[in-house]
Structure formats: C-alpha cells, structure tokens
Amino acid sequence: FAVLALSIGIKIWQGLFYKKVSAKIDSQALVASAKDSFNDVYTTLAVLVSAFIEGVTGLRIDGYIGFLIAAYIIYSGLQLIREFINELMGMRPSQTEIDEMKNVLSKMETIVGYHDLLIHNYGPSQTFASVHIEIDDRWDLNKAHQTIDAIEAKFKEELDVNLVCHIDPVNLYDPTQQFVHQTIKKIIRSFDASLKVHDIRLVTHGEEPKILFDLV
C-alpha cells in the first residue's frame, strides 16, 4: 500500500509538471504525457480502493472499477487523437488571430488594399497565410518587392505568421478604369450587398475589350 501511495504522489507531481510546461510552450505532446500520468494515477488508485473495500467487506469490485477506468482511458485517448488530427490537417484560426492579421494589413499605408486572406494553422509557430496585396500599378518591381518583403517580415515578427503575398496591380488614375470599377461594384451590390468584388481588370488587348473580376 505504501509503495502504491508513493507512486500515486509521484505521478500526480509528474502530471502537474507536464501540464504546467505544456501550457507555457503550447505542446500537445506534453499535454498527452500529462494525461497519461493522471491515467496512471486513476489506475493505481482504483487498485488501492478495490483492495481496501475487499479487505473490509469481502466484495470484489476490482473488475467493475477496472472497466470504468479503461473506458475513461479510451475516451481520453480518442480526445488526444482528435486533437492531433486537427493539428495535422490544419485548424481554423481564432477570430482574434484573424482580426490581428487584418489589423496589420489595414495599417499598411503604402498599399491600396488587400483581399483573399487565407490562413492555415498547424500548431504552435506553424501558422501559414497568403494574401493578395493591391498596389499602384505605376510602381516598379523593386518597390513592389520591398513593400511585400516588409509586410511578410512584419507578420513574422509581430504575429509569428509565415506570410506569402501575391501582388495585384491596380490602376488608380485612368478614368475609364475607374468608371468600370464603380459600375461593376454598383451592379454587384444591386444583386446582393454581401457580395464582394475585386481584381477588376479592363483588358484591351485583342479584338474586343474584356472585363475580368473575382466575385466572392
């Protein structure tokens, strides 16, 4: 009994230690180790309780208690598997994370705008994102490249997010382009105000002009 009681105390300390460290470094592996330690505590405690009750009353309940402990261990194991699968396949980021990324992009005064922000979360320090950055089409490649590099570096430094940017040049000064932009947006809103349109382009190469855009 003394040895079993000592092992319970050690396992409780071990489980609490793993739990504390896992919270600091956000490690699912240590979360699993903590649960495993506590499962050992429950199993050993069940043996002690069963032995005590049998010694006092003569009732043999170790089989029933063992069944309940086994069911709990299976349940906790399935929970861990589900969490690991979520990290492996990718999880939806929290609304706070999304808002933080949008806030950084909205404060970038050198860009015209952004759209198609896609985020993939695969665990601690494993968040990847991509976004389309709208820039003045009069910029040269060097200026565009420097701007994109600055945005990607800012995401990594402030949010620990690995960002990849795609450049969308926007014509801000051609009256025809501006008329097309405003007309397309007005038509789309007349059908559904929740719809958003971007990447509006007036292609004049070829026999007839073409209007291209993305609708989401």
Number of H- or I-type helical stretches: 6
Write out the strand line-up for the largest beta sheet, numbering strands in chain order: 1-2-3
What overall geometry do the principal axes of the alpha carbons give? elongated
Q: Could you state the order of secondary-structure elements as H and E?
A: HHHHEEHEHEE
Rg, nearest Å: 29 Å
Question: Using DSSP, what is the number of strands?
Answer: 5
Structural class: alpha+beta
Strand content: 15-25%
The helical percent reads 55-70%
What features would you describe in this structure?
The strands form two sheets. A three-stranded mixed beta sheet has the order 1-2-3, with helices on one face. Strands 4-5 form a two-stranded antiparallel ribbon. The model has no long low-confidence stretch (mean pLDDT 84). It starts with a helix and ends with a strand. It is α+β, with helices and mostly antiparallel strands and 216 residues long. It has three domains: 2-89; 90-170, Cation efflux protein, cytoplasmic domain (Alpha-Beta Plaits), CATH 3.30.70; 172-216, no CATH class. 60% of the residues lie in helices and 19% in strands. Helix 2 packs antiparallel against helix 3 (62-89) and helix 4 (95-106) runs antiparallel to helix 5 (141-159).
